[in-house]
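Category: protein sequence paired with discrete backbone structure
Discipline: computational structural biology
Format: plain text, a pair of labelled lines
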Amino acid sequence: MAPEPPPGAPPVRSVTLDAGGIPLSGLLALPAQPVPRALVVALHGSGMSAGYFDSRARPGLSLLELGAGLGYAVLALDRPGYGASAAVLPEGQDLQGQTAAVLAALEGFVRDRDPGAGVLLVGHSGGGRVALAAAAAARGGLVPLGVDLSGLGRRFLVEPWRLPGPDLPGEWRRHWGALRFYPPDAFRLGQRLLRPVPAVEMRETLRWPEMYPSVAAGVGVPVRFTFAEQELWWRHDGEALEELLTPLMGASPEVARQAHAGHNISLGWAARTYHLRVLSFLEECLLARDTAVGRVATGADRDLKKVDADLT
């Protein structure tokens, strides 16, 4: 049996959103207050599902519970080709199609609910590609505050034929890294999260190194990449990082390292540490926006002048 959530933990419930006629299933956790601090939208990697961000191996590892407990709304979606949409999209969708579907679902979601101060996109591995593309394509209120990515680079560390696909699960150790990085229940519970990789998605994965520059060039919000101590799918040496960050000309990119973790960071002991850093990055994005030059409110400016006058 999976451990029970701690007493008072925010409930996590299943939801299904309409993405222009495509049903996108997922998980949602809401804070106690009516209006959240902000909305975190999490997109899982290839061969996984929304539950990746809701680890039950130990209390405190779930991004949904942690975020909602700290005042954020957290929505983890099954990407197009997974979950409820798998029957409608048995071959999956390409990056453009996934991006359009996710943005359509989010447009309906925020129409019905106040997202608070804005949206942070969180993507793991293949979900990171969609998060970046969505940040580049989003308009209006869906333009995210930032994009937080893990398990995603630009250059593969393995030969393309060794990547996971519809008929190949990929090398187990490369998904997980050292066994000590995970609670004992993580592997048993993780089996429930596994899904087939849609064929269209797999074919496009092979083209990601060439697709990346054009996607990255359209991103105009802060981007943070996190590489696990044992990230075994993607190169993250100095040369590879330069190739990764250079195309993000308008995105203020940064790179972080997560110790004591493998590729599946959100399923390991490091999940809570990483998720707290995700939310800290969100707060940094909010701080940068609120203190940007030219955004000081007239009322606040007036108050500062009054304080200055009183002191003199």
Observations:
- Residues 19 and 102 are 7 Å apart (CA to CA).
